[in-house]
Amino acid sequence: MPSETPHKQQIARAFSQAAATYDTAAVLQREVGSRLLAMLEARFSDGLRGKTILDIGAGSGWFGKEMQARGATVIALDLAEGMLRHTARHRRAAFCLLADAERLPLADNSVDACFSSLAVQWCDLSAAAAEMRRVTRNGGTVAAATVVEGSLHQLGGAWRAADSDAHTNPFLGEAEIRRAFGCFAHTQTETRTHTQTFADLQDLLGSLKNIGANHVGNRENKGLTGKRRWQRFCAAYEALRRPDGLLPLDYRIAYILAGD
User: Fold this and answer.
1) How far, CA to CA in Å, does 203 sit from each of 11, 26, 148, 190, 209?
2) What top-level class of enzyme does the UniProt entry assign (predicted)?
3) Which of 41, 64, 228, 235 has its CA 20 to 30 A from that of 87?
4) Each residue of 49-78: pLDDT tens digit?
5) Angstrom distance (rounded) from CA 110 to CA 168
6) What SS3 class is residue 255?
7) Are 158 and 233 in contact, with CB atoms under 8 Å apart?
8) What is the pLDDT of residues 122-180, one digit of tens each?
9) What beta strand segments (E) does the chain contain?
């Protein structure tokens, strides 16, 4: 494994197990990544053709495929070996690297851009940002999207009505994210809220499991949830059902463009 910490190993395992279902389930990921890719492409006067791009937290390689279609050479990097196998099998990158975003196995100034969509929330963000700055050439660009504090608040609130355990991961605030990217001379950030809706709780919770994002690092009770707690959770979430009959789940996403 590229990381020896149990937390990172568990993240890698969860995403590897989700490789087969990821593309079908990753609705939010495609929405966010598509917007981020458009932002990155607009930073280069001639687009992405001929550029070498490091896709950090590449997942199934969906956006590697999109960048290759635009003429880029893509290096896919991920903690999850299962995801990289999927990427390689479908030829969605020129190279695949099993590695941690906090310790990129690339030389200084070796890529034209780093692209990272909904991956660095699992990292020490300052360490990941410093590594992205190190490997990106002068005049290049880092484009990253990450989850911000306040995301999944409906899920967290419903679980708090059921028990005192942690059922969602903590996320950094906007100010902390800006500070993490302070190693760059120029940084532009924008935060947007994306709301997903679901017919029932099974679909909502499945949306997290099927993309591998259901690992909670600070959860004490990792066993099964008791029947009464589950009923309290369901009742609390059902109270949030909208007039259109759907259950909402909000993600606050920070979009970052950085460079020197």
Assistant:
1) 21, 13, 23, 29, 10
2) transferase
3) 41
4) 999 999 999 999 999 999 999 999 999 999
5) 36
6) strand
7) yes
8) 899 999 999 999 999 999 999 999 999 999 999 999 999 998 887 888 899 999 999 99
9) 52-56, 73-78, 95-98, 111-117, 136-147, 186-198, 247-259
Domain segments of the chain: what residues? Answer: 6-150+169-196+250-259
Place of tokens 């005049």: 139
Residue pair 100/124 in contact (Cβ under 8 Å)? The answer is no
Of residues 192, 153, 189, the one with CA closest to residue 171:
153
Distance CA 59, CA 85 (A): 10
As a CATH number, domain 6-150+169-196+250-259 is 3.40.50.150
DSSP 142-172: EEEEEE-TTTTHHHHHHHHTT-SS--S----
SS3 state at 124: coil
Cα distance between residue 164 and residue 185, in whole Å: 42
Q: What is the largest CA-CA distance in the chain?
A: 59
Query: Rounded to whole angstroms, how far apart are CA atoms 100 and 66?
Result: 23
Q: pTM for the whole thing?
A: 0.87
Q: How many whole angstroms separate alpha carbon 235 and alpha carbon 224? A: 18
For residue 134, the Cα-to-chain-centroid distance in whole angstroms is 21
* Pair 42, 63: CB distance under 8 Å: no
